[in-house]
Structures are given as C-alpha cells and as structure tokens.
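>> received
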Amino acid sequence: MIKAGIVGLGNLGSRHARNVIKLSSQVELIAICDRKEVVNRFLETHQVPYVYTDYDEMLQNPELDAVLIVTSVNAHFSMVMKAIAANLHIFVEKPLALTAEQAQEAQLAADKNPDKILMTGYMRRFDSSYMEAKRKIDAGEIGKPIMFRGYSLDKDSGAESAPERGDQNGAWYSEMIVHDVDLARWLLGSEVDTIRTVGGCYKHLEFEKYHDIDNACTLMSFKNNSMAMFYTGRTAPHGSHVETEIVGTDGIIRINAIPRKDRLDLYTPAGVVNECADDFLNRFADAFAREIQEFFTCIAEQRKPEMTPYDSQMVCQIAQKAYQAYLSKDLVTM
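>> returned
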C-alpha cells in the first residue's frame, strides 16, 4: 500500500485528494497540509490520520512514500526540492517552477534520484480526446502533423481581482500557455525553434502594471519545420474554452471546437443553444482522475511516467521565452 500526503487543499487540491481516496485499494491518503481552517473544512467530510499546517513537518513523517503538491505556483520549486531531499515520489501541479532556471535545477535534482518519480500534472494528456488524438497521429492517420493551434481561454468572471495573483502564480504565460506548449511538443514531436508573441491588456487594464496580459497570441516554429499558434486569454464571455486543432498533411483533428458543457442541444425561440463548460475542473474531471491514477500506478509498477522532468522544464523554458517575446516585441530563439 502506497502512503501519500498532499499539500494544498483548494479547489484543485481537494479534487486531487478525493481522487487519491478513490484509489483506496492502491493508495492510502495519510496526511494533509494547509491552513488550519482549510484542513478543518476537509476533515468535515473525510478522515485522515495526520493533519499538518507546516509542510516541513509533514515531510518528516516516516510513513510517507509520496507527496502531492497543489499550492500556489511560487511555492512549487521549493516544495519539490524539499520532497526530493526527503526521498519521496512527487506529483506537482503544473508548472514545475516559475522560472526555467528553477525548473532545470529541479529536473537535475530528480535525475540524481532515479528510483523516485517526479511527475508534473499536465492533465490534458490524460483527457480521452487528446489521448485518442495522440494515438491517431502516431498511427499516421492524418499524415505528418505540421501545425498545432491551441485556444486556452478562461471565463471573464473574477478577472478584475486576478492581477494580485501574479505574485503567487506568475504572469499569465506561466500559468496558462504551458498547457498548450506541452501538448504541442507532445503531438508535433519536436522542440521549439523560434517564438513571437503579441498581445496586451484590452479589457482589464489593471494587468498592465504587472506587465501581464488579458489576451495574447504566440506563434512558434519547431525544429522539424512544424508550427504552432497559441491564443490565450481571460476574457471569454461564454465560459472555459479549451480548443485544439492539429493539421496534418493528410487530415485534421479538432478537439472541443465548441466548448460544450454536455451533449444537450436546447431549442428555444432564440435558437438552438449549446451550454458551455463553466470551468476547467468540470471539463477535465476524468483527466484529473486518470493522471493521479497514472502517478500511483507508476510507483506501484516501478516505472517512469511519459511526462518526464525534462518535459516539464522544457515547457517552463518555452513559456518564459514566449513571455520575453511579448515584453521585447521581437522574435526570440530557443
């Protein structure tokens, strides 16, 4: 039985914790860590043997085999490094770190401890649609993939209060574009060569003082001569909109072109309506469950996940370069 602890019990952390509990035949969630009021709220519906408000103290628990880190992004790097030093298997939510330099340091530290797993949570890889797209591409069903197009848009609600989160989570490019960068590398099978970014603050001007954006587009060329276009923003009026297109020489795959909440069509005097997904937690509920299952299955089977520490640090490096391209208004090379 694998014994696990989790730090960070916000909306996503609680989702991960519940998914761990569902794996009761394989894993036991023995420890949780967060602020006192947060852990008390979790304990209203779940029983856990060890409760902490101090992460360092939790890591000293000799029963722990693995830790899940689901905190603000600015804490990821230091928490990962401490967990590596504690000789634990680690699942950390994306991104691995706020800077490329920190991500590379974490990767190198993990590489020195090959018996332990360091897995970053890029859940889109575990969504059934993306898994099928990867299978079709690898099988040659669309020929050679030559272009990736990704939309990652958050619903506008709450955007006015979001700028301050930059201190904890970095600029929007540290938090959102990383998903599409990971998918593009995965599906196009190549590394980035050049990057250009344009964008700005078109609706929420309060982001300007943080040198951040509310909408931006990035164009990338890859070393195998493929290309990618990313549109990321936080002013979508209709809901959470994650859309992907992969263009091949012999076919095209589109995923979630209409960000539907379900398969229901509502016929009204105003027309036919498809309700949209409200947030990423519901859109990727199954993917979150699969990635946690994969993490613990890898531990049990003593194998490494497909998403390597190198992949994680490369995504951080590319996202940082894309942000630099935005700030410089110039072409950036990898």
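>> The chain has twelve helices and 15 strands.
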